[in-house]
Amino acid sequence: MLRTRTSLSTWSQERSMKWLVLLGLVVFSDCIVKIPLTRVNIMRNSRSEKIMLNNFLKEHAYRLYLTSSPGKNIATHPLKNINDMVYVGNITIGTPPQKFQVVFDTGSSDLWVPSILCTSRFSSHALFRHLESSTYRPTQETLSLIYVSGRMKGVVAIDTVRIGDRVITDQRFGLSMEQSGFEGKPFDGVLGLNYPNLSFTGGIPIFDNLKNQGAISEPVFAFYLSKSKPEGSVVMFGGVDKSYYQGTLNWVPLIQAGDWRVHMDRISINRRVIACNDGCEAFVDTGTSLILGPGRLIDNILRLIGATKHYVSYSVLNTLPSIVFTINGINYPLPAQAYAVKDSSSDCYITFKQLQPSRSTETWYLGDVFLRLYFSVFDRGNDRIGLAQAV
User: Fold this and answer.
1) Which residues are part of the catalytic machinery?
2) What is the set of domains in the chain, with CATH numbers?
3) Residues 338-359: pLDDT tens digits?
4) What sections of the chain are H helices per DSSP?
5) pTM here?
């Protein structure tokens, strides 16, 4: 359960043609802050590697969503593509800067990284050394986050955060003192990009501070996730680079301001509706690797494509149908080559999983499997999401 929502911070209601023009014209500007995302290898060829992938899919790829808890500046940040399952990018915290590899997650709102005082030791994770930062300030507040894939307990701190060449001062963030479920995961922490009402640190989230402190000029960020190359994925802040998509952006209004959730019309195969018959809600979520939905509907999809325990033979891959998501009247097909991950020389893993815990209303999570095909724009100024065919 999420805590009671607080009031949203708002920007001026400048929802004019100015920004619509900016979306079309701000393309190769040096003001765009692009943060690269990089693919990290999750081994999956040998039998032992296949087991590792299965465990990763069960534990992490389920998703990062929380289940309970007590001038014209455009920034583009590179991300790392972890074998098409996790996209991570580098940030720094403190003075002098200490580097961390984080998941940029639209399903949560807080930044957290492990502390040097964390009792859960991870040999591969960077740890924040607070005594080495001259800008570090402690608070008396504690923090507890419970994800489907793990949990963390820690404290809230304040320090300087850098994303690319953009600097955010006095940023509240979490320092994990104890955590579980993140062992062996190829990232140190999480950087949330959801609305401030979902923050558990009690402060202003990173994206809001980027705008409030003048590091970006427009309250917009966007993701381009590479389909296969380890490099080339980016998250951009403050605007949109049109070179990452083709055609036009199709705008979808949020169901309500406060989270990245939209109305979905239906899901179909060969023009036959197989889910979301009467419409449903869908979270567009970069913190989710797969497509998540109600168990009975996931089972039906697996049955229709002939999967056994989420697997099909690689030999039938080219015969499998596309699964079409219709959102705001626009069809977004997902071909088999996108939703089936080659697991070994003879098998493919179908990346549709049951949403846990289940919800009373039909709810879907469109994760990276979907977002690799469709460039996504998250427009806080107009409470909407834009989707277009990725290049």
Assistant:
1) 105, 285
2) 17-237 (2.40.70.10), 244-390 (2.40.70.10)
3) 999 887 668 999 999 998 777 8
4) 17-25, 47-59, 206-212, 295-304, 336-339, 368-371
5) 0.86
